[in-house]
Design a protein that fits this description.
Layout lengths: L25 H17 L3 E2 L5 E3 H8 L4 H6 L2 E3 L6 E4 L4 H10 L8 E10 L11 E10 L5 H17 L6 E6 L3 H16 L7 H9 L13 H5 L10 H17 L4 E2 L11 E8 L8 E7 L3 H4 L7 E7 H11 L10 E5 L4 H14 L4 E3 L6 H11 L3 E5 L1 H6 L1 E6 L5 E5 L3 H10 L1
Parallel strand pairs: 1-5, 7-8, 12-13, 12-14
Antiparallel strand pairs: 2-4, 3-4, 5-6, 6-11, 7-9, 9-10, 10-11, 14-15, 15-16
Helix pairs in contact: 1-5, 5-9
Bound molecules: adenosine-5'-triphosphate and magnesium ion.
């Protein structure tokens, strides 16, 4: 026997059954995907699917060289033919906007798009943090807001409501203003942080000059007090930015969406301006952020497109589903409706034909394979979770009939092939 090969660390298999250290199942995941498809449709967002590999430069330019994501977490390698540097995508926005610019989609007017798929970050794996994880995200491109900022939030809230977890999520919001406002704040912040240079760790000291705002994003508890007293960007916002923020909040208030203002919220990626937000939970330990997003009005131009405003969000599907599994109401069902059994000469083929008729009428049918005793087959039928069993043994075969059993109610009947569909339908409706 050859040696077993294991999956790459931090990357999960999604199976029909729960695993000891990864409780999500493929049926549950699929139910979520269907919910997302319905929800985005209700808001008239259209799907975009982009490649999982992109040129490394795309992420460097959009996410920012100084971020953890680009600086430490990307899977990057040289393409063997032309030495081009490629990276597995660590998030979806950069690829989405690259595609929008490349195909000139905004020429047709503003776009509302959504995406879903695997992302890759080389982080320390733990519950709710993986090296291949999945995001669902949406982007509204070409809208100034703040009405669209509120629509994006409302769509999230709608999804949480449908998944039964709205009460377990908290919405935090902030405004990062525009470039000039951030520059003025930055100068004040650098001056302030320079006073604490001895206390800063190596990362923060480097960022002090490259990206001081991100020093405040530190997860080091020892630096918390220093961060709390630092100059706040929100106090540097000009009239226009303040109006945008006030407008955004007025929409949320009007829609009855509850939020907390968090002036320290800066988000992990460099491209944000004006509105930023996070949905967090206290139910997942350290992995508290389920969904994050905001405006990135400069990014389309940065990627070579005609300047256009943009806002979006991304949520971590694993984290969200761990929460839904424990507190929500998503129903997963991959059980067959009918387990079909047979015994004797010619029965297997005839059963396949009946199963075909049933499937064409919309029933999900598991057909027993092989020739075990009917008793053994009945055990399998029980274990399959199917509500109905269909039995085709020699008696039935000889008389052109089938036996049906309602496993939930215990009732049983032998009916002609013509009565098969109507009997099942009647029993189902009982
Ligand atoms: P965190 O602070 O938890 O590292 P982040 O700010 O890096 O999150 P974003 O880049 O905003 O995360 O990605 C949006 C969402 O994707 C996160 O809120 C989270 O739910 C999910 N996510 C990010 N990284 C991972 C990961 N390694 N494993 C699982 N989910 C992740
Ligand atoms: Mg991160």
């Amino acid at each position: 026997m050859g040696q077993k090969i294991q999956a790459v660390k931090g990357m999960n298999d999604l199976l029909p059954v729960e695993q000891r250290d990864f409780k999500l199942t493929s049926a549950f995941w699929q139910a979520f995907e269907e919910t997302v498809a319905r929800c985005t449709k209700r808001y008239a967002y259209q799907q975009i699917r982009t490649p999982i590999l992109e040129q490394t430069g795309l992420f460097v330019r959009s996410i920012g060289e100084e971020t953890d994501v680009v600086g430490k977490e990307m899977y990057t390698f040289a393409d063997s033919n032309d030495k081009l540097s490629l990276s597995l995508r660590p998030e979806g926005t950069a690829s989405c906007l690259r595609a929008v610019v490349e195909h000139n989609l905004l020429y047709n007017g503003p776009q509302k798009l959504w995406y879903m798929g695997p992302m890759f970050r080389r982080e320390r794996p733990q519950k709710g943090r993986y090296r291949q994880f999945h995001q669902f995200g949406a982007e509204a491109l070409g809208f100034e807001g703040p009405d669209i900022d509120a629509e994006i939030i409302a769509m999230c809230a709608d999804l949480w409501r449908e998944l039964g977890i709205l009460e377990h999520l908290t919405l935090e919001i902030n405004s990062l203003g525009n470039k000039e406002e951030r520059a003025a704040h930055r100068a004040a912040l650098v001056e302030y942080l320079t006073g604490f240079v001895d206390q800063l760790d190596e990362d923060s000291r480097r960022r002090l000059h490259t990206n001081p705002l991100r020093v405040l994003d530190t997860k080091n508890p020892a630096l918390q007090q220093m961060c709390d007293a630092a100059p706040r960007l929100i106090d540097y916002l000009g009239e226009e930015s303040r109006a945008h923020y006030a407008g955004f909040k007025a929409f949320l208030d009007g829609l009855g969406i509850v939020y907390t203002e968090n002036p320290r919220l800066v988000r992990g990626l460099d491209y944000y301006n004006l509105t930023v937000f996070e949905w967090t939970t206290d139910k997942l330990g350290a992995q508290a952020t389920v969904c994050g997003g905001g405006r990135y009005n400069g990014l389309i131009e940065e990627l070579g497109g005609k300047p256009a405003p943009a806002i979006g969000f991304a949520l971590g599907i694993e984290r969200l589903l761990l929460l839904v599994q424990e507190y929500g109401c998503l129903k997963a069902d991959d059980k067959p409706d009918i387990y079909a059994m047979q015994q004797g000469e010619g029965a297997a083929l005839q059963l396949m034909k009946y199963a075909g008729l049933l499937r064409a009428a919309g029933w999900n049918v598991a057909q027993h394979a092989g020739s075990q005793s009917l008793k053994a087959q009945m055990k399998k039928a029980d274990a399959s979770g199917a509500r109905f069993a269909l039995i085709l043994a020699q008696d039935e075969l000889a008389t052109g009939r089938v036996t049906l059993k309602d496993m939930a109610k215990g009732q049983q009947a032998t009916v002609s092939a013509d009565e098969l569909l109507t009997t099942l339908q009647q029993w189902k409706n009982q």
